């Protein structure tokens, strides 16, 4: 029996979608798989905010691709950002060279959408990468140090005030964590500044927090954050950010040297694809099998794609980790089916619910058949977020760090580490 030639699969993006696809194709000698990413590690985005608030280490939620691929002879890693797709040549161009493919899978995810607000883009703090989280941690801690030294009460307030734009899960989780930090840590670390401690403002253009979740979850988030002292502004847009002033759409301004941008994402750009396969939010139109419209060997999965054939989600799937994971796993099966001349399986999202942590011992969980909150929801949140973390050592370290930090109310990661750019 004649063996078919090995198919070259190039996966661009090592997030939930791309990594799950690669892992499912591991050790299958029908495929030669190359994962391309601008970083040499996979990381767990749902916990970025805990890195940014000095609660856990970045290494707890990140893991090198090359370490994961050890012993998997058909998997390789290629470091480089995508520059161009060349469908007519079946190649891609990256920052570090070109790669040929038989099948190309685009799984690059999203980036922050600043909605054309140039001042916000230049000065606000996004939350999409490990670099963003570490930069935010440094920024917040540096502003606290400046607040301690300030002699003018208005300067102290400006340096201590934090404005968070976006009332979705990320914005709510950051607000809760910073509020807990102010309550349990800042008073101890910065005793001379506690009387002039700044306020936390959470601003959202919608009429509720946690927009995609249930009314019960929305109300719980509002009530918990309100009790923690967070100033919540709903039905309010951030219009501009000039000279440490956050300018709101209703004309109000908030003096703050820290604007955290947790609202809005847009799919990563893919030069080389025609405009007709790109839709709202820059997402790529795909069919039932995540195949890019008009192409037979290019696929898109995860947050980057827009699939409107799933009857329960006619406007496209939510940009959530579970969607990306399920699409990555199914595409692995379908690639095997395709080269075996078997019919592929259409993707149908299995919605397992959503959850958000609000503060210490407070979380909300929406399931298809119910809702629960409080301490038990918080425990479920902790457990669920440990399972997908890559590497047993990371899981153990994360569990221990969480336990110790929650018991002591005093994590020890408040380090301001700034690489010396002059010594490259």
Mean pLDDT over the full residue set: 89
The third-level CATH topology of the largest domain is FAD/NAD(P)-binding domain
Largest sheet: 5 strands, parallel
Tally of individual domains? 2
Q: What's the Cα radius of gyration?
A: 23 Å
**Widest sheet: strand order?**
5-2-1-9-21
Considering the protein shown, what is the CATH homologous superfamily of the largest domain? FAD/NAD(P)-binding domain
Low-confidence stretches: none
Strand content range: 15-25%
Computed structural class: alpha/beta
Q: First CA to last CA: what distance?
A: 56 Å
* Number of distinct beta strands: 25
Overall morphology: globular
Helix content: 25-40%
Number of contiguous helices: 11
CATH class placement of the largest domain: Alpha Beta
CATH architecture of the largest domain: 3-Layer(bba) Sandwich
């Amino acid at each position: 029996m004649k063996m078919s030639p090995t198919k070259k699969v190039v996966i661009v993006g090592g997030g939930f979608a791309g990594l799950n696809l690669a892992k499912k194709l591991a050790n299958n000698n029908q495929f030669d798989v190359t994962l391309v990413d601008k970083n040499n590690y996979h990381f767990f985005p749902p916990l970025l905010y805990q890195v940014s608030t000095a609660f856990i280490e970045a290494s707890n939620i990140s893991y090198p691709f090359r370490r994961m691929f050890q012993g998997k002879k058909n998997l390789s890693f290629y470091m480089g950002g995508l520059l161009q797709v060349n469908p007519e040549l079946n190649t891609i161009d990256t920052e570090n060279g070109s790669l040929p493919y038989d099948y190309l899978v685009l799984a690059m995810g999203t980036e922050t959408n600043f909605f054309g607000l140039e001042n916000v883009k230049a000065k606000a703090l996004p939350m999409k990468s490990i670099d963003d989280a570490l930069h935010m941690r440094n920024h917040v801690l540096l502003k606290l140090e400046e607040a301690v030294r300030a002699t003018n009460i208005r300067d102290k307030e400006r340096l201590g005030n934090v404005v968070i734009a976006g009332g979705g899960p990320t914005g709510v989780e950051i607000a809760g964590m910073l509020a807990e930090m102010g309550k349990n840590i800042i008073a101890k670390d910065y005793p001379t500044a506690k009387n002039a401690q700044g306020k936390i403002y959470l601003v959202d253009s919608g009429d509720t927090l946690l927009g995609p979740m249930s009314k019960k979850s929305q109300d719980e988030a509002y009530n918990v954050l309100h009790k923690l002292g967070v100033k919540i502004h709903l039905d309010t847009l951030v219009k501009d950010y000039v000279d440490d002033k956050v300018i709101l759409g209703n004309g109000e301004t908030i003096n703050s040297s820290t604007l955290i941008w947790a609202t809005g994402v847009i799919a990563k750009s893919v030069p080389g694809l025609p405009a007709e396969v790109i839709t709202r939010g820059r997402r790529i139109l795909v069919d039932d099998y995540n195949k890019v419209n008009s192409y037979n060997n290019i696929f898109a999965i995860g947050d980057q794609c827009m699939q409107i054939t799933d009857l329960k989600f006619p406007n496209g799937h939510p940009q959530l980790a579970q969607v990306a994971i399920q699409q990555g796993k199914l595409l692995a099966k379908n690639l095997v089916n395709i080269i075996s001349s078997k019919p592929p399986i259409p993707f149908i999202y299995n919605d397992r619910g959503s959850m958000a942590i609000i503060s210490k011992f407070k979380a909300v969980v929406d399931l298809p058949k119910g809702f629960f909150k409080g301490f038990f929801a918080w425990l479920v949140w902790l457990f669920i977020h440990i399972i997908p973390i890559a590497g047993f050592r990371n899981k153990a370290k994360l569990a221990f760090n969480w336990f110790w930090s929650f018991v002591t109310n005093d994590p020890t990661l408040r380090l301001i580490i700034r690489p010396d750019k002059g010594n490259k």
